Amino acid sequence: MRDLTGTAVPFADVDLVIRPERLDFGPGAAERIAARWAEKAAENPHIWNGPFFLFDRVGLDREAAGGTVFRAEGGETDFASFLAWREASPPPDPFRHLFPVGAVVSADDRLMVGRMGPRTANPGRLYPPSGSFDPDDLVKGSDGLSRLDPEANILREIGEETGLDGRRFAPEPGWIAIGSGPSRFALVKVYRAVETAAALEAEIADHMARDADPELDGVLFAPVGRPLDPVLSVPYVNVLLAELAARG
To answer: CA-based diameter of the chain, in Å?
Structure first.
């Protein structure tokens, strides 16, 4: 599974296993990564080289009980390594980037979209409040394996970026996988709000006014079915907006 760009694939559940060993990018990779990170840090001193997860085994288990399961297995690396991997064209095998997305839809059918702030790695880009997995998302299963919890990540990111408690929103059953470029996949969970876009926007504005260092530069509510400017957004967002419109 390398590229689902332009495609929305529904599935029932997700299973993301993380092995204990760190990922290996091959001979000479450490020096190349360090050099590129030094350039990035000089451009934006606010970025942070924290833990990161990539996956080298990804697929859909259509024989699983209860419906199709999106299964993946991977390991830990760091943000510098991810950026160096992402900048290759195409990003080298076998790695894949999976990131959870909470798609909050208002009562008047608008998708909550954040505009990333100038201190982030993606300044000015438009996409739902979200973030890549970090070690806080790891949980130990009854089988002894470590897994990432995408819903915990989603609720945390919504809270940090907007001040909204995501537990107030009603989650739809299942998930949607959407490609966001070669080897990158958004794992989307749709949440329905009882409030209108205007009401939610007012709450978020109040939170951002009190945040000394907001991650977002602003929030907009995009009508489902109406695409955003692809130059300002990221590949999966317009596919998501179309999928939400099709669902009604």
So the answer is: 53
What local confidence, expressed as pLDDT, does residue 25 receive? 93
Determine the distance from the C-alpha atom of residue 28 to the mean position of all C-alpha atoms in its chain, rounded to a whole number. 29
pLDDT single digits (tens) 105-132: 999 999 999 998 887 778 889 999 999 9
- Phi–psi pair at 188, nearest 5 degrees: -100, 130
Beta-bridge mates of residue 36: none
Question: CB-based contacts of 151: which residues, under 8 Å, 6+ apart?
Answer: 100, 171, 189
Report which of 96, 125, 142 is spatially closest to residue 215, judged by C-alpha positions. Answer: 125
Q: Is the peptide bond before 90 cis (omega within 30 degrees of 0)?
A: yes
Q: What is the DSSP string of 149-213?
A: -HHHHHHHHHHHHH---GGGSEEPSSEEEEE-STTEEEEEEEEE-SS-HHHHHHHHHHHHHH-SS
pTM of the model: 0.93
Give 61-106 pLDDT, tens digit per residue.
999 988 999 999 999 999 999 999 999 988 999 999 999 999 999 9
Instruction: Tally Cβ neighbours within 10 Å of residue 40.
Output: 17
In whole angstroms, what is the distance from residue 241 CA to residue 3 CA?
19
What integer pLDDT is reported at residue 3 of this predicted model?
61
Among 240, 176, 167, 136, residue whose Cα is nearest residue 12: 176
The answer to whether 127 and 102 have CB atoms below 8 angstroms apart is no
The helix/strand/coil state of 94 is coil
Measured between alpha carbons, how far apart are the two ends of the chain, in Å? 28
Distances, alpha carbon 190 to alpha carbons 153, 187, 199, 230, in Å: 14, 10, 19, 21
**Statement: residue 36 has pLDDT above 90:** yes
